[in-house]
Write a structure and sequence with these properties.
By secondary structure, the chain is α+β, with helices and mostly antiparallel strands. The protein folds into three domains: about 200 residues, no CATH class; about 170 residues, Band 7 domain (Tetrahydropterin Synthase, Chain A, 2-Layer Sandwich), CATH 3.30.479; about 80 residues, no CATH class. The chain is built from 16 helices and twelve strands. Strands 1-5-4-7 form a four-stranded antiparallel β-sheet. The protein has a three-stranded mixed β-sheet with strand order 2-3-6. A hairpin with a 5-residue loop joins strand 8 and strand 9. The protein is rod-shaped, with a radius of gyration of 46 Å. The protein starts with a strand and ends with a helix.
């Protein structure tokens, strides 16, 4: 792609000497400088010639010099004699006053802070002396050199583009010119009266939004927090070695002329896609009820599960991709950190307060009920009860040993008696559960035999 895209309508002006002298480029300024110096030099020479080259240095001081050098010094010094300067000085003063009045007029017309900016512009535009150089190393016009005539008034001048940036200028006829970055060419000459329209940052852009307030289809407020959007200027060209893309003329025009205008009137294309993303997130939530939006699965905890993949996919449809390309943009990634459905919402009526709190509470209760009915939760609860029972039996046996009345060598019989009573208690619980749910619980076949054996051992211990 050509690094400078010039879009013009109609044929240019025909060549003529007047067009050449009024040319807004470097050729015209050099021609004007040569013409002005030639006219001033001829007038100066004519004044000196009419005055017969009045001497400025006395003849006796020239007698000791070589003849040729003495003649040249006598002739050229006569141009600075008072008899000649008295006619040349008004012309020089007129030129200075013309420049000063022109600078004052430009300062007033463009609301410049000082006339020095206008002087720099006039020297470059009229005579091509010290053209201003505008260096673009930021994607925002506000961060450029505000004292540069090329930015405040327009061309002529030189534009220095850093890699990763592009610039859109407008000619006097209103036609856009696009200057793109290139590793081998980063300096461009800006013609006269070309003004900067916008600066395009071709690098990936990151925008973060702290919170977006959305409303579901049934009137519940949902907050999207820590929204991150990564996007860039669309380009159909290949990526450069520095990770940026070449400037796409169509995208540059769409960004420069189709963006959101700021307070100063300049386009702020970097805010276009974040604004569209906010509207898309609000639209996505508004098209769903709270129940549809939460989409709670059966095996999740009571925390809300937000379908982030569906939300992200809604930005990458072919229709929305084409819409962004028409705006000159390309979405790289969008994500939401967390979503919140708060109880302390403030709708407009008491009825909405009750409905919002009810729906939110019901959703949480359903999530909690699903969790309690899950097989994993039931298995975990069974393990916890089994562990608690084991711990209780162990603590009870330890307490029975410490509180025993028999000597240490026969205290084990007391532990067996405590174990027998524990088994009798468990037997009673199982029989009670059988009456409530017959066939679900069964007692071991040798439970009675075990209880009889334990009872015989404990009775034997009393007779000792």
């Amino acid at each position: 792609m050509s690094q400078v895209a010039d879009i013009r309508v109609g044929a240019g002006p025909r060549f003529s000497p007047l067009n050449l002298i009024l040319d807004r480029g470097r050729v015209g300024s050099r021609l004007r400088l040569v013409t002005a110096l030639a006219v001033l030099g001829l007038y100066w020479f004519a004044v000196a010639l009419i005055g017969n080259f009045p001497p400025l240095i006395p003849a006796e001081r020239l007698t000791d010099l070589p003849v040729v050098f003495a003649v040249l010094l006598d002739v050229f010094s006569s141009f600075l004699s008072p008899q000649v300067l008295i006619f040349v000085f008004p012309v020089l003063l007129t030129i200075f006053l013309a420049f000063h009045l022109g600078a004052r007029y430009l300062a007033d017309l463009f609301e410049l802070e000082s006339t020095s900016i206008a002087y720099r512009y006039l020297l470059g535009s009229v005579f091509g002396i010290r053209y201003p150089v505008l260096s673009i190393d930021a994607g925002d016009v506000a961060h450029l050199d505000q004292q540069n005539p090329l930015l405040r008034i327009g061309g002529p001048g030189y534009l220095k583009l850093h890699l990763g940036f592009a610039a859109v200028f407008e000619t006097l006829e209103g036609q856009p010119r696009i200057y793109g970055p290139s590793a081998g060419h980063s300096r461009y000459f800006i013609q006269g009266f070309e003004r900067l329209r916008d600066v395009i940052d071709l690098r990936d852009q990151l925008r973060e939004i702290d919170e977006i307030r959305t409303v579901t289809k049934d009137g519940i407020i949902v907050h999207a927090r820590d929204v991150q959007i990564v996007f860039r200027a669309f380009s159909s060209y290949r990526r450069n070695d520095d990770g940026t893309y070449e400037a796409d003329p169509r995208s540059m025009l769409n960004l420069a002329y189709g963006g959101i205008s700021g307070e100063a009137g300049l386009p702020r294309w970097t805010e276009t896609l974040p604004t569209l993303a906010v509207h898309e997130i609000k639209r996505y939530v508004a098209a769903r009820t709270l129940e549809e939006f939460l989409a709670l699965p059966g095996d999740q905890s009571e925390n809300f599960h937000i379908p982030r993949r569906k939300l992200t996919a809604s930005f990458h449809t072919q229709e929305r991709k084409q819409r962004l390309q028409d705006l000159g943009l390309e979405l790289v990634w969008v994500g939401v950190g967390t979503w919140e459905v708060r109880d302390d919402q403030i709708p407009s009526t008491d009825l909405e307060i009750a409905a919002g709190q009810t729906l939110t509470g019901v959703a949480r209760d359903e999530a909690r009920a699903r969790r309690l009915r899950s097989s994993e939760h039931l298995r975990r609860e069974g393990q916890l009860r089994e562990f608690a029972l084991q711990r209780e039996v162990i603590l009870e046996l330890i307490a029975a040993w410490n509180d025993g009345q028999l000597p240490d060598r026969r205290r084990c019989y007391e532990l067996l008696d405590r174990l027998r009573r524990r088994l009798i208690d468990l037997q009673g619980r199982v029989e009670a559960a059988q009456r409530l749910d017959p066939g679900r619980f069964e007692l071991p076949d040798r439970l009675q035999e075990t209880l009889s054996q334990l009872e015989s051992l404990t009775e034997h211990s009393r007779s000792l």
